[in-house]
Amino acid sequence: MIETAQAFGIDIGGSGIKAAPVNLEAGEFAEPRFKILTPKVSTPEAVAEVVKQQLEHFEVPESAPVGIAFPAPIKPGQPLDFIANLDQSWIGEDITAVFTEACGRPVVVVNDADAAGLAEQHFGAAKGQDGLVIATTLGTGIGTALIYNGHLIPNTELGHIELPDGKGDAEKYAASSVREQQDMSYKKWAKRLTKYYGLMEKYFNPDLFVVGGGVSRVSEKFLPLVDIKTPIVPAKLRNEAGIIGAAYYASTKH
To answer: Which residues sit opposite 22 in a β-bridge?
Structure first.
């Protein structure tokens, strides 16, 4: 692993497993990321084998902190009780133990939305922001991360908050995928996002919202139309955030 890296991050998704050494002084990749497609049958054994390949590819030394961003709520030492985007055989597994055993070294596992939020707080759009930051990812669903004065409040699922007036589960009403499926204009979608972020504002009184996900590339088309009092800004690190955040989180636990 290159000398400018202080930690190593891996981001596990339903379609790809991406990894890179991370320069934590600059908050960026120390080398270009390496992606391996997620195995079609994404069992713990199959996914752990890919993670092991990533570590070997970059020749990550034993001394380097290794962080893994994973698409599920993470409670260290407890078995997984929910998984959406990977094989259901993950249910009942202790994720940290699976990766530690397969890789023959200690690793730290963090929820993928939490990893992205940490990256934005420490290196991206929320850098230097005190108080409560709510980082959201608008994609297939709505991922959320709560960070208070730089400290992560893990495993929030605020994409599933119930909207009033019979609108139901927020992500089924306002996720980016819903906009695409319904061929919705950005103006109409922004009205839905206003309902979502307005409710979050009412309950949590945050100091800043950060909006990530692929759609943040065109944030100028919808974010100025979201009518709330709290400042709301696009994410800066985008699809690098999971890797950078996982590496940062691992460095704090090392």
So the answer is: 7, 29
